[in-house]
Amino acid sequence: MLKGRLGLETARIPHVDRFGLVYLERGALGVEDGCLRFVAAAGPAMEAGDYQLPHQSVSFVLLGPGSTVSHDALRLLAYHGTGLAAVGADGVRCYTAPPLIPDNSGLARQQARAWADAAGGRLAVARRMYAWRLGKVLPHRDITVLRGIEGARMKETYKLTAARFGVPWAGRRYDRANPNAADLANQAINHAASAIEAAAAIAVAATATVPQLGFIHEDSGQSFVLDIADLFRDTITLPVAFQAAKEATKKPDMPIERITRRLAGGILQREGVIPAMIDRIKALFEPEV
What we know:
It is flat and about 60 Å long. The two termini are 38 Å apart. It is an alpha/beta fold. The chain has helices at residues 71-79, 106-116, 121-134, 143-165, 184-206, 223-230, 233-250, 256-271, 273-284, and strands spanning 21-24, 27-32, 35-40, 49-53, 60-63, 68-69, 83-87, 94-96. The strands form 2 sheets. The chain has a 4-stranded mixed β-sheet with strand order 1-5-7-8, sandwiched between helices. Helix 2 packs across helix 3 and helix 5 packs across helix 7. It has 2 domains: 8-96, CATH 3.100.10.20; 106-284, Four Helix Bundle (Hemerythrin (Met), subunit A).
């Protein structure tokens, strides 16, 4: 199997005996003699060459920029229950993930049961998420109170992270109608959040959990994706954003989005963020001990 990128070759998901995920870019994915074939040009992820992929033992193929896929390849992937997602470079965008039917519904059923029990299971999962983020189990059992505590904590985290990177900070400002009107730090936070949400979308798709069934976020069609992304906001999203804002002052000709995406992609690879997200999703629905 091709060595994966982003630490994905070490990801383990409940997909029978499969090995995990593989990242491909700058090539054509097709079928030859009943097997998946990827003809790649040279790039940062892999050397130029003609590769055969063991589709029966891969759970998810991440198809990066500069790639095409044939109808025969889609048919073969569907037949073997192998997922395919079109992603940005280094997985900082998730453009589409076809809803192929997984061969194990365990996590999705656990998620649905917990979500359906609004007063018990749903709150318990939300409290576990807050405990992971805040470093302690809070006694409160009102989701509004928990959101308020987390919001106050985030205001302080913004200030501390900005100071750590030496970036001026006047508070979180975001105008949806004109996002580019914000200062560099706020723009970078928006771009970093999009990148980490893409990684979370890949993790949710890979575990066959339900993106609409969130425990802290409620209204978005990607509520569970946002829940998972927020678990990494303090440790990944904000450091990437403020580092990007700092670098942008030294590179005025380079768009802040490009700087942020490059930094986010690098940390996804080095820190194995997507496998960590997959592990978090699996741990989220384990019984409390």
